[in-house]
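ARCHIVE CARD
Drawer: 12
Card no.: 0347
Subject: one protein chain, sequence and derived structure
Cross-reference: see card 0346
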Amino acid sequence: MRVRVLLFGPLAARLNRREEVLELDAPATAADVYRHYAGADAVLGALGRDVLLAVNAEFAAPDTPLAERDEVALLPPMSGGSSGASPEEPSTASSAGAGAGAAPGGGPAGALLGAAGVASSSGAGSVAAAAASPGPDRGGVELVRGPIVLDRLRQMVAAPGHGGVVVFEGVTRADVLDGQPVLYLEYEAYEEMALRRMRELAAEARQRFAIGAVAMAHRLGRVVVGETSVAIAVGAPHRGPAFAACAWAITELKRSVPIWKREHTAEGHRWAEGTPFAGEPAGQS
């Protein structure tokens, strides 16, 4: 059986490749793909409870059966999922939220996050090049490789019946990494899955809160200090649900959308650490 394997962020850097075709004995499960790589690399093996699996752009349990030509992705923790020490932090423009991304520690995680490896700006599994990045659909989500236009997002959620419109900005702030100023961030994504997950979050927000519309945009590629890397706009009849939905949406986006970031200084770079999504880890079985 042949499956296409996608690797992202620090995992791609560690293994120095982004995708490959893997031959497995049938029957096979998603966990067999993880075991293939974990058995060849002690650091990856030690991270089994932090790596998630996706099959055909959907989160998958380790025991998910595989079929010929399935696409299996190994997902390290999404960058920005933890609180406190990331150079990305919400601006004061429209609403408040939690900053994200703790500095990596020692042990296997620290070794993985410090990996150099392949360049990350293009990203395996990309569904669109920079010049043809998909624009907002009716669900109002997009990944962009240029500036996020806040007024455009605001207009997407504005309506005569919306008395409250809240716009959140996550702005790359000046910070220090290993004693050196952070010059810029570099984002990559599993684009097909990221867009799907963002649409799911927008739909869930509309179910959870008394709101009318949600729009989300996230940057990919290089984002310098002072630029917006993520933005969420919510329109609702009243301000309370709009604020609540916006805060919930940014928290869920940063913990469950497959986007990773690398912090660059004049002397090097390091992947930002995130908190694993609440799914079944690859090393579970």
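Annotation on reverse: The chain has two domains: 2-77, 88-271. Residues 81-107, 119-139 have pLDDT under 50 and may be disordered.
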